[in-house]
Fold this sequence. Notes:
Blueprint: H1 2-18, E1 30-37, E2 40-47, E3 55-59, E4 62-66, E5 86-89, E6 96-101, E7 109-115, E8 120-126, E9 131-135, E10 142-150, E11 153-161
Antiparallel strand pairs: 1-2, 3-4, 5-6, 6-9, 7-8, 7-10, 10-11
Amino acid sequence: MKIVILLFSLSIVQGIQAQQLKRQMLSAAGSSQLVTNVAGSYFIQQSIGQHSVIGTYTVDSQMLRQGYIQPLPAIVLGGNPNDLEIVVFPNPFTEGVVVNLEQGLENDIKVELFDASGRLIKSDTYDATNQLTLPLTGLSQGSYFLQLSSGRQQAVKQLLKL
Length: 162
């Protein structure tokens, strides 16, 4: 009986120690802005309802991040030179999105919005710019795909309408 209780106790302790939280995000509300100056480009993020500072604390190989907006580590190995580098926010959206293009473009930008079944919902062309504001009103809740193309470059992002 003592062996059964000991084995049961060890299995409970092992189960408690085996669980680890890898990533948790409480809120995605806020805004983001790409700021460029003579020193370089910076992407600034602000969360709504944040009552404390945003920061990172590292000890040995463990990292603790404080704040609503939790960045994931990125590994860049190169990429397709025909891919547009874009940031689309907010996602999920209610009324529309803002698209920041990471590189300057020379050609017009074609924007197409598709629903989950692949039907073209909206198509517009914009002059070359670093930022687009896309009003997406009148859409039902669901998943959409935003395709941007400029010359031979293109990017596709999945959007969620609340």
